[in-house]
Amino acid sequence: MEVSALEGPLCFRCGDILAAPASAPPGSPPEQILCRACRLAPPLFQRAVAFGPYTGRMRDAIHSFKYDLVRPAAGPLGRRLAAAVERLAAQAPPGLFERMLVVPVPLHRARYARRGFNQARLLAAHAITELRRAHPGWQLTLAPGTLLRHRATLSQAGLTPRQRRVNLRGAFRVSSTAAALLEGRSVLLVDDILTTGATARAAASALLQAGASTVWVATLARAGRHAPDHHIPATERFSDINTLRQMPGAYPLTQFLPFSPQEQGIYPPPHQPSSFREDEGCRWEKP
Fold it and tell me: Which of 16, 111, 161, 205 lies at a C-alpha separation of 20 to 30 Å from 167?
């Protein structure tokens, strides 16, 4: 599987591709080369890296793995995630990655039940296997039960930066059984895609509040901050909406609809019956 690595001038903190390389005066140290978002609101995590851009074959591979449920794709994708982690380790303080807790971004139980697996956990497991082969001295501990997504959220795909922040507000917490394991440890947070960094920021906040010393982020792909993925399958998007309708105290869906529901593709065109795609758990119905 041929996928390109991420290239070009990048933000030192979040790894976003910079529209212009001169985000700091010439000769500035690397840590001062930041995107506008990180300058205005520095993230709580130390740094974030991704293997490649969320375009072309990379996007196709992630969609096959995540939405078409092609689980064998986790192997080759995990090896690319391992390459991103090696790049991150080279930029971290010496010895930090020799004893690192690896925490995959969790799914809410409703989405996990639909998909049958957590893509971040599978990617992390394959990446750790590859890294242990390449770096026998590294002691990477996979801790998938550390972080919990205790509130259902919409898929982040297609949401604006503000909607992503609202969507994830209060969504994560650390499990009580993992608090002792987390105390004073550096954490590598793993996910498949990073777009605006809203997920990484929210997860890092929960981990640091629970006692982690630092949080580092590695993802498989980096999507453009202002180029949301509108190719998410209908089964994923509409099931999320129905899940939110059933959650007590959920945020009003109008916060996520800058246009009319029909323009957003949430309700069917007039010629489609209300039971369209009901067999896939995506019943079309107005609230």
Answer: 16
* One domain, residues 173 and 87: yes
- The alpha carbon dihedral of 181, 150, 196, 113 has a sign of positive
Q: Report if residue 9 sits inside a domain.
A: no
pLDDT in tens, 151-199: 666 565 656 666 766 666 667 889 988 888 899 999 999 999 998 888 9
Q: If DSSP codes are grouped into helix, strand and coil, which group holds residue 100? A: strand
- Do 44 and 88 share a domain, yes or no? yes
Split into its structural domains, the chain has a count of 2
H helix intervals, the chain: 36-40, 56-66, 74-91, 109-115, 119-134, 161-168, 179-182, 198-209, 234-246, 261-264
Cβ density class 209-230: b for 16+ within 10 Å, e for less? ebebebbbbbbbbbbebeebbe
Contacts of 186 (CB under 8 A, 6+ apart): 96, 99, 100, 101, 212, 213, 214, 215, 216
Global confidence as pTM:
0.76
